[in-house]
Write a structure and sequence with these properties.
It contains eight helices and two strands, in the order αβαβαααααα. By secondary structure, the chain is mainly alpha-helical. The protein has a two-stranded parallel sheet with strand order 1-2. α2 links the parallel β1 and β2.
Length: 164
């Protein structure tokens, strides 16, 4: 399997070259990576028009490529939650948590979205719920101790619920 990158300025004919090479290698089930979902549809339609055969090969985005590589390596991947699903999960986590300090804020309509953003930041920083809880416990002796412990509980609750 080889990887080839074809670049060039707009109007240079690179799209035609890419499609011609893709169609010529359909027997090897090539993968064409394009930037957006809209590009996937556009390229698939063009390939069907050129090849007149709807089998062989795949057009995908970078996310799709990463999923293909993960599957090929035996990594089990789960589909992510949509933004609406995440917010609903956050609302459920907040409702079911034993909150004292955050009880008032948790009743507000913007709380699930704020919690989602906060947890997203933790996950982007690759902080696990266990690490976060440990760090918050170490700081929980001060006046904000209850607040920090509740944040740690919400993060753990979200991860438990998401996994379930």
């Amino acid at each position: 399997m080889s990887l080839e990158l074809i670049t060039g300025p707009a109007g240079s004919g690179k799209t035609g070259e890419i499609l011609d090479r893709f169609v010529a290698s359909l027997d090897r089930e090539p993968v064409l990576v394009v930037p957006t979902g809209a590009d996937v549809q556009r390229y698939e339609e063009e390939i069907l028009f050129r090849a007149r055969v709807p089998v062989g090969g795949r057009v995908t985005t970078f996310g799709g490529l990463f999923a293909l590589v993960a599957r090929a390596c035996g990594v089990i991947t789960r589909p992510g939650l949509s933004p609406v699903q995440r917010e609903l999960v956050m609302a459920g986590v907040a409702r079911s948590a034993s909150l004292v300090t955050l009880q008032g804020p948790a009743r507000r309509s913007g709380f699930p979205a704020a919690l989602d953003h906060f947890i997203g930041e933790l996950q982007s920083a690759m902080v696990t719920p266990e690490q976060f809880s440990e760090r918050m416990t170490a700081r929980s002796r001060g006046p904000r101790g209850g607040y920090l412990a509740e944040l740690a509980s919400l993060y753990s609750g979200y991860c438990d619920r998401r996994t379930a």
